[in-house]
Design brief:
Order of helices and strands: EEEEEHEHEHHEHEHEEH
Radius of gyration: 26 Å
Family: Belongs to the aspartate-semialdehyde dehydrogenase family.
Number of strands: 11
GO molecular function: NAD binding; oxidoreductase activity, acting on the aldehyde or oxo group of donors, NAD or NADP as acceptor; protein dimerization activity
Shape: elongated
CATH architecture of the largest domain: 3-Layer(aba) Sandwich
Structural class: alpha/beta
Strand order of the largest sheet: 8-11-10-9
Protein name: Semialdehyde dehydrogenase NAD-binding domain-containing protein
Distance between the termini: 77 Å
CATH superfamily of the largest domain: NAD(P)-binding Rossmann-like Domain
CATH class of the largest domain: Alpha Beta
Helix content: 25-40%
Length: about 260
Amino acid sequence: MLASRRSAGKKLTFEDREYTVEELKPESFDGVDIALFSAGGSISKEMGPVAAEKGAIVVDNSSAFRMDPNVPLIIPEVNSAAMSHIKLKGRAGKGALIANPNCSTIICLMAATPLHRHAKYAFNLFSHNAPVLSNGYNEEEMKLVKETRKIWNDNDVKVTATCIRVPVMRAHAESVNLQFDKPLDEDTARRILKEAAGVVVIDDRASNLFPTPLEVSKKDDVAVGRIRQDLSQEGNHGLDIFVCGDQIRKGAALNAVQIAEKLL
């Protein structure tokens, strides 16, 4: 058990055996066959290659090497073949680095991969409270995008990230927050939406029935529900709604046809 200098000398018990924590140094890996790293990216970047150079197989739990093209990113049930070239040969063997994927990626792909293998099942990958990057995606979303492509060895797989991981075949779902100059209560909003062309309201609170991608798939109308006052806004100036629509119909082909019809 290896850690920083300040932790050296501490006692830890594992499987009824007491171990003394030692200070992490390059020579710590002399004679080590497998090294499990979970001390953060900076430590992994510094000491991981050192351990590998000394012959250890390093399994790293940080993000340090996940997107390195020369380091396998492994979920054993999914892509163990990607590490088939790495063999444990004892102290005289050549070391190597193996990256452990992000936790959300692992959980997602354990479920999604069997479906992906069977039918290339489409799915959305959703967000996390991580810093937003210049491209509009946050770090957690981009981990899912990049790591999925690497694990599946498919740079063309389309992954989008917003909030939670949900497999869907088609249709977009959007949570929309609206803020108005003039007050608008939810009952008035519901009436306006019911009268709007191309919109259907699905908003049954008692039965917990609201729009879903499955409900709107292969339908022309856009479904709206979860119509409620935004509690963060004073005086009925805010509304929250949930919108689902088939992106192939109204989101693309149908809308183009309707534009053409207006020209006739």
